[in-house]
Amino acid sequence: MAQTPATLDDFRAILGALPGPDADAAAAAADRNGQLTKPPAALGRLEDLAQWYAGWRGNGRPALENPQVVIFAGNHGVAAKGVSAFPPEVTVQMVANFEHGGAAINQLSKAFGAKMDVHAIDLDRPTGDFTETPAMDDADVLAALLTGWNAVDVQADLLVTGEMGIGNTTAAAAIAHALYGGTAQDWVGRGTGVDDAGLTLKAQVVADGVARHKGGDGLDTLARLGGREIAAMAGAILRARVEGIPVILDGFICCSAAACLQAVAPDALDHCVAGHVSAESAHPALLAKLGKEPLLSLGLRLGEGSGAALAIGVLKGAVACHSGMATFAEAGVSAG
């Protein structure tokens, strides 16, 4: 089990010395894949997924039996600018819904056999309005990163992180704009359903925040423009890497958290796949920046980890075929 980091520089040190996949397991998985009772590449991306998973789990014939879904919730000071169609009180209400099993992510977690945990982070203490002040100071962002780090079940064999937080598509857009440039309009979307005037306001808020907070690395950007739930997702994704747990990324907000890690270490997301491309307008561009091809495209824009949870089924299918199919020798079938 990995030692718990105590400072932001400890997190930076971890990002500077990331473990890679098990090369022997990956080679064994590739060898097995070549012997299975199917034409070469007949299962398409499922074959690549199974071999990727095998390498990160250190097992050439792996099983996927213990997925974990973790939802983090936080409130954003920038919501006071009117960037969301819903008030911050909805965050608290949705956390209660998660805890009582009534949300979409509860049903999807149950459908794919995932353990689900919920962590509400200081909902009575929103982050700072990043147009006026950094969203979080070092102590706040460290605490949020550690919430995510400590939320990971080290016995899990797959991780999905989701979020809830009114105003967090604005924070995610600001992170993307700060990391990748372009204009604020390139990165903002309708989020919870703002109208055209709300979209224009949102772009201005993002532009103002990014203009105020320039420079620094990905963790600095996370602190200045992000949210506690976004930082917690980043902490969880990093912990999963250290523990050899593959990750399915969710939508735009989850990917903004992941982008902060990749900005510090270019290979930080090698243990991650993108579960889906969402209907949030800038998500395809963000996935392109991350170098991730989504597994699903279903027009989802809910958040909560919902698209990634659906993709658990895809990955389970890939692993089941890889590990459960007979080889040509075992089946007594001619390989051709």
Which secondary structure elements does this structure contain, and how are they paired or packed?
Blueprint: H1 8-15, H2 23-33, H3 45-57, E1 67-73, H4 89-99, H5 104-111, E2 115-120, H6 138-151, E3 158-164, H7 168-180, H8 184-187, H9 196-212, H10 218-225, H11 228-243, E4 247-249, H12 252-264, E5 272-274, H13 283-290, H14 306-324, H15 328-331
Helix pairs in contact: 2-3, 3-14, 6-11, 7-9, 7-10, 7-12, 10-12, 11-12, 12-13
Protein architecture, described:
- By secondary structure, the chain is α/β, with parallel strands linked by helices.
- It is built from 15 helices and 5 strands.
- The protein has helices at about 10-15, 25-35, 45-55, 90-100, 105-110, 140-150, 170-180, 185, 195-210, 220-225, 230-245, 250-265, 285-290, 305-325, 330, and strands at about 65-75, 115-120, 160-165, 245-250, 270-275.
- The protein has a 5-stranded parallel beta sheet, with helices on both faces.
- Helix 2 (about 25-35) runs antiparallel to helix 3, helix 6 crosses helix 11 (about 230-245) and helix 7 (about 170-180) runs parallel beside helix 12.
- The termini are far apart.
- The model has no long low-confidence stretch (mean pLDDT about 95).
